[in-house]
Amino acid sequence: MLIGIAALLTGKTAEIITIACLGALTLYMISMVALIRLRKQEPELERPFRVPLYPWFPLTALGISGVAFLAIAVYNPLLTGIYFALLAVAYAWFRVRYKG
Fold it and tell me: What is the reported pTM?
């Protein structure tokens, strides 16, 4: 929260929103891949909710989110680099903190 407030005080809210969109799209793509993978690995698992028109809707969502991610990356290469640097730092911190 403090990092977010400090970033907002810089007046670069458009850049912050773009980086947040990259993160949201990444999570969305990961969730679609996880859904498809889980359905293949555990086809008999009880599911309280069925995805309509599976696998076409998840594949379509994955494709659209991938195109959106690429579009943002092409038009904002510096912000995309910052996003991947933040991911690398977060992953390194995770590996150091949780060695298990």
Answer: 0.85
